[in-house]
Protein: Fe2OG dioxygenase domain-containing protein
Amino acid sequence: MNGLILSGSVLATGAAATGALFWRYRIRRRGRYSNLAALRPGFLEQRPAGFRIDAQQDQARDAFRQDLITRVDDALAPETFSLARTEASAAAPHVERSYVPAHKQGGTISYESMHELAPTCLAIYHSPVLRDWLSEVIGDKVVPTADYDQSSCSLLVYDRAGDHIGWHYDHNFYRGRHFTVLISLINRSAAGELSASLLQQQRSDGSERTFDTSENTLVLFEGARVRHRATAIAEGDLRTILSMTYSTDPRTGPIKELARRVKDMAFFGLRALWD
Ligand SMILES: [Fe+2]
Structure:
């Protein structure tokens, strides 16, 4: 009996200590996210992102309202594209690799890491010009998603033969509708042509549609309603995409937040559960 009481109290003490450590860790992480948010106005001031999307707004809006997916060419101004591309190349050694059997493999630079490795890309994500343009095309005001969501703004890096992601919908973890914006920064084969990876949509009748993702194209879609995939790259290919998420209401609840963290394990491993 005494042994049982002792075991119970050891377990309770262990659980309380673990809980306290976890809570302390969470508070530290929250402080980290606040610090990153405080740095951001500096990024925007030093590196104002330039775009060439204005003239393509009407065409993009018409296509999006019809299919919930649209694309534009030459989205970034040359200087911004060049800076973002250079950041994407330099960030390659810091990629976190992930592998989900029969579904995906590839590398990712998380939102948190982007603050150190890709400030121009962050300036693109937080640009009021892009936000207003997207809001107009979508027909509803959108804003960036949460600081602690490592997929809010990330680099998706395919640099090993076979890197890809299979057919899927993007689950929506927010109260409002949420949208994915992809800007192709690097997309080339060893011979200097396009990589073998294709961004495809599967329509409700089962037919497939391929979207040109040449460098500096922008694709906007509502991932929760558009089934999509990126096919595999070939040996010697390199494909780096700036992936950004916006929502009409980025608030979330505890169940959706937990679900988002479980999903992010496919990109960032176990740390996505508590970071
Ligand atoms: Fe997706």
Q: What stands out?
A: The pocket of fe (ii) ion is lined by residues 168, 170, 223, 228 (CB under 6 Å). The chain has seven helices and twelve strands. The radius of gyration is 20 Å. The CA atoms of residues 201 and 228 lie 4 Å apart.
